[in-house]
Specification:
Mean pLDDT: 85
Strand order of the largest sheet: 1-3-2-6-5-4
Order of helices and strands: EHEEHEEEEHEEEEEEH
Distance between the termini: 82 Å
Largest sheet: 6 strands, mixed, barrel
Strand content: 35-45%
Radius of gyration: 29 Å
Number of strands: 13
Length: 223
Amino acid sequence: MAGAIPDLEAQERTGTGKGAARQARRDGMVPGIVFGGDVDPLPINIPFNVLIKKLRAGRFKSTLFNMKVEGHDDVRVICRDVQRHVVKDLPTHIDFMRLRRTTKINLFIAVEVEGEDVSPGLKKGGVLTLVRPEVELIVTAGDIPDHITIDVSEMEIGDNVTISSVTLPEGAKPTIDRDFVIAQLSAPAGLASADDEDEDADVDADEVPTTEMDAPNGEQSDD
């Protein structure tokens, strides 16, 4: 199922060049451009406060947006560049690329867990850790999943879930080639500590190093 794509509202910018861009910044806007898709580039302005909030939320460049500009059809875009002030590190210009529905893009997809209520490992007090709450996938712009699901219903303490055991949406694949861990089920801290102590207590005698000591001065040691 395709995920909900967040809206990003912008205004069409009248005029081009440095003068129009400076005026936009004085008006509390960040100038930008939308290009690609076999149509003319569209100069835009985005409210500074809106943009800075989204940038600080993280992963802005890997998020697909539904751009809404009055007088134009909505279009799916992804950020391709953010120019920043060399001293203040604040955005001064932003570039977006239009996407066709068949375009392949990299996006972070949320991980959801099912089967926690029947997992034998969790019933024994195990602790489930989501190593990757999100997984970066290569997906089609027209068919972006809300999430991927991992099933922990048969997991025991010590088990883990890797990407190879997850059923991915059709056409999606991980950006990482290796079989990485998404979640793991470990023993509770108290049990893990007790196991470590038991292992220390069960050391065999022949594992304990011995050192021969010389006899006191003037004495002979008996062989």
